[in-house]
């Protein structure tokens, strides 16, 4: 029965196949968890951090990016601009803060795979204890869809937050240990 839910279904009066909702959400999840997409988001965040702080992003900080960017509910709670600090956002969003540790743990392997992809394609550079992105990733306005653009904007915001926050402080605020 479950396999029928994931096959295209032909509906009367329609010219082509229509995919069922579970199939569509599976494809969206695969796209969000594609290491190349994660690499793009990490590069966007690392570039924004380096641009703001004029120094590379500390290595541990990169593990905070994807758990803040990928979940839609967390991403939608992020401010449009970085005038609000990470600490102020965490205090204003206790549910997001409470869920963060579990999300960060669940996304650790994906973050590592995304980092490997970014390094393999020379999107980011590793220096002693830090990560740098010397060439700017494509801007969110060039993204192929609205959700991709939202994720890229959120990644840049998180990068600016992490540039202004000591890594140990950022981990503490979000309730995780490096």
Description:
It contains 10 helices and 3 strands. The protein has a 3-stranded antiparallel β-sheet with strand order 1-3-2. The termini are far apart. It is mostly helical and 178 residues long. The N terminus is likely disordered. The longest helix has 19 residues. 33% of the residues are buried.
Keywords:
mainly alpha; globular; 178 residues; single chain; 3-stranded antiparallel beta sheet; 3 strands
Number of strands: 3
Strand order of the largest sheet: 1-3-2
Radius of gyration, Cα only, in angstroms?
A: 18 Å
List low-pLDDT spans: 1-25
Distance from first to last alpha carbon: 43 Å
Total DSSP helices = 10
Give the overall pLDDT as a whole number.
84
The share of residues in helices is 55-70%
Report the biggest beta sheet as strand number plus sense, adding barrel if it closes.
Answer: 3 strands, antiparallel
Please trace the helix and strand order, writing H or E for each element. HHHEHHHHHEEHH
